[in-house]
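Shipment paperwork, digital attachment
Item: protein structure file
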Amino acid sequence: MVEFIDCGSLSITYDATGKASISFSVLTDNDKLTDDYTDKEWGSIRFDCVITNVMQRPIIGSKKWFEWSIQMEGVGNY
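Attachment content:
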């Protein structure tokens, strides 16, 4: 099974209270995700998040590839 984050899709923003909003896409050759993306490190900051929205869609023209759009909120541990 192949699963990876599309790095160009990664977006991390902060509000005035320091809450992080993170969104990205995952490409996979399976209809299920295997990684738990709620505890990841980006740019030397470890984020502890909860998933607020997930959407899966097949990649048109592929035999079995899927794109997952994931949105999360949480905090960065510096």
